[in-house]
Amino acid sequence: VYDVVPVTVADYRRLAMRRLPRFLFDYIDGGANDEITLAANTSAFRALRLKQRVMRDVSSVDTSTLLFGRQASMPLALAPVGMAGMFARRGEVQAARAAQRVGVPFTSSTVGICPLEEIRVATSQPFWFQLYMLRDRDFIGELLERAERAGCETLAFTIDLPLPGLRLRDFRNGMLGGGWPGKLSRLAQLAISPGWAWDVGIRGRPHSFGNLADKVANPEDLDAYKAFVDSQFDPRCTWKDIHWLREQWRGKLLIKGLMEADDARAAVDAGADGVVVSNHGARQLDAVAPSISKLRSVSEAVGADVEVYLDGGVRSGIDIAKALAFGARGVLVGRPWVFAMAARGEQGLVELLDLFQRELATAMALMGVNRVSDLNAAVMDQGCAYVP
Ligand code: FNR
């Protein structure tokens, strides 16, 4: 009777778990292998301590900032998440609308369900487009053209997926492979998720696998789609390909998915306007360090005119403050937005994002800071590193 309003990411996660078929929930929630890094991404944030500062006139706290030259209400963007249109009806459209209402960028994944053009029609604010390096380079050219026509100004190019990581939950629950037993298990899971089945499975049709739809014979066949996508990831990629990509794309280029300072320098040499320090939300290499632990060395390695973002484990407005203190221009959030949208649709996502902003603004006031540009190493309590 008391827990009526979801207020944290954990609350929305619980609601999403109840609503989604298990294989979709696990696909979102899970990480690679033993999920060591998955746990570390969030616990590393929790271990950081801030300084309480007082008597500083914090009557004009302002969380707004510029992300690639565009005004945002806070230093946050929605991370690209594949298949978001399966988690809520026309999910990418709902998320893009929520992002617009709150005033933060939305990123459309290469492997979204709603095509770029549908998102474009539903919104007026420019959104970001995320691309993987596909073997079919002509197709990359086509996608870039479509993104430009859809008004995308920022391309997030993801480089930490030469091949998909081993997300063992996806094998266990029949999401990937598993033959007939896997298919039957999926059907059984759908049968006990009637709310989702009606809203997304039936009313949300067609599930056209948006940006890649033309390339799959039966775009509603999840196995065929996965097989096509997996065959397209290109493990031969090197920085040369980023130089090539730079020539193809006129807008801002954000290189997503690096952890080491050397790699960040290479990205900048290849023409990146920004980088995302990221381990792909712990879905690729398990046992790699939590992304927040690598942020400071990356932000010190690249010049001040390169925008450094962080993702992985951001679960509150306070986490945004911590990331900015270590040199980030902004954060991306993945699972938080997906859970809020799966649980409560566009409105749920607006409420979660509003809460993040309120948490950030409150923390800034209590740290004695009025502007996000004042969030730097000085707000961290260096002497107090809590080890869980
Ligand atoms: C992702 N991520 C991702 N990244 C990307 O570049 N393209 C994609 O299509 C996807 N797809 C995807 C699906 C799901 C279900 C998740 C959870 C994540 C990674 C994403 O952009 C981001 O890096 C992480 O989600 C950040 O970590 P948190 O915020 O989820 O902890």
From TrEMBL:
Positions annotated as active site in the UniProt record: 280 (proton acceptor)
Lineage: superkingdom: Bacteria
Gene Ontology BP, a term: aerobic respiration
GO cellular component terms listed in the entry, alphabetical order: plasma membrane
MF-aspect GO terms: FMN binding; L-lactate dehydrogenase (NAD+) activity
Binding site for FMN: 80-82, 109, 130, 158, 256, 278, 311-315, 334-335
Positions annotated to bind glyoxylate: 27, 132, 167, 280, 283
Record has Nucleotidyltransferase as a keyword: no
Transmembrane segments: none
SUPFAM superfamilies with a match to the protein in the record: FMN-linked oxidoreductases
Segments forming domain FMN hydroxy acid dehydrogenase: 1-385
A Pfam family assignment: FMN_dh
Enzyme nomenclature, EC number: 1.1.1.27
Cofactor(s) of this protein: FMN
Entry keyword set: Flavoprotein, FMN, Oxidoreductase
Family to which the UniProt record says this protein belongs: Belongs to the FMN-dependent alpha-hydroxy acid dehydrogenase family.
Protein name, as recorded: L-lactate dehydrogenase
Protein species of origin: Kineobactrum salinum
